[in-house]
């Protein structure tokens, strides 16, 4: 299954040709990560996969890292939109990000396995940082805390637990559906931070 990012918001704010070219480049990067790992991918590889020239690439992105950041942003935004459009109630769950992430990881196992297997790689670090920001925001907005435990400690605890569970689930192919893994994660996370 080829992974493509669902896009709905870019077409109205930028020229359709620009949006199409950026989508081709972003989808090319996503397709190459499971095959080679982010660090080994070159701009030439991306251009070849997207069927665009190098000058076109540099018209849209300064370098491979700028493409990576834009791809992560669009991708994570698409997961958030999907949760809202699926009618999932927001604000009722402890960590809103977890179920969409488990569902997406299940649908695109090779991509997520590659992302999680490259610890120390910039794309893995960026994914971890974006999850940290999401968790931090949710903890602060929902005013969740535990007797004198600093928020940043709770953030590190939850993100570490989430990524460890996600990596285990993908590697072991434990036979648990995404909703069940998420339920277990949610219950353990709630106990862990005293919510």
Automatic annotation (TrEMBL):
PROSITE patterns: HTH_TETR_2 (PS50977)
Residues that span the membrane, as ranges: 153-171
Chain coiled-coil ranges: none
Signal peptide: none
DNA-binding span(s): 42-61
Keyword Ubl conjugation appears in the UniProt entry: no
Superkingdom, taxonomy of origin: Bacteria
Pfam family, any one: TetR_N
Residue intervals of the HTH tetR-type domain: 19-79
Keywords of this entry: DNA-binding, Membrane, Transmembrane, Transmembrane helix
Repeat recorded as keyword: no
Gene3D superfamilies according to UniProt: Tetracycline Repressor, domain 2
PANTHER family on file: ACREF/ENVCD OPERON REPRESSOR-RELATED, TETR-FAMILY TRANSCRIPTIONAL REGULATOR
Name the UniProt record assigns to this protein: TetR/AcrR family transcriptional regulator
């Amino acid at each position: 299954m080829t992974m493509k990012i669902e896009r709905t918001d870019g077409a109205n704010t930028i020229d359709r040709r620009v949006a199409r070219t950026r989508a081709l480049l972003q989808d090319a990067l996503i397709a190459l990560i499971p095959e080679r790992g982010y660090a080994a991918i070159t701009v030439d590889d991306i251009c070849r996969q997207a069927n665009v020239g190098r000058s076109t690439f540099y018209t849209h992105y300064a370098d491979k890292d700028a493409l990576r950041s834009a791809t992560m942003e669009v991708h994570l935004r698409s997961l958030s939109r999907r949760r809202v459009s699926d009618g999932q109630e927001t604000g009722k769950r402890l960590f809103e990000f977890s179920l969409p992430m488990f569902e997406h990881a299940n649908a695109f196992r090779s991509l997520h396995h590659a992302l999680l297997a490259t610890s120390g790689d910039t794309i893995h670090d960026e994914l971890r940082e974006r999850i940290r920001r999401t968790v931090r925001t949710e903890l602060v907005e929902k005013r969740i805390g535990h007797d004198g435990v600093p928020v940043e400690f709770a953030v590190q605890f939850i993100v570490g637990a989430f990524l460890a569970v996600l990596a285990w689930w993908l590697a072991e192919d434990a036979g648990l559906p995404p909703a069940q893994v998420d339920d277990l994660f949610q219950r353990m996370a709630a106990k862990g931070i005293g919510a």
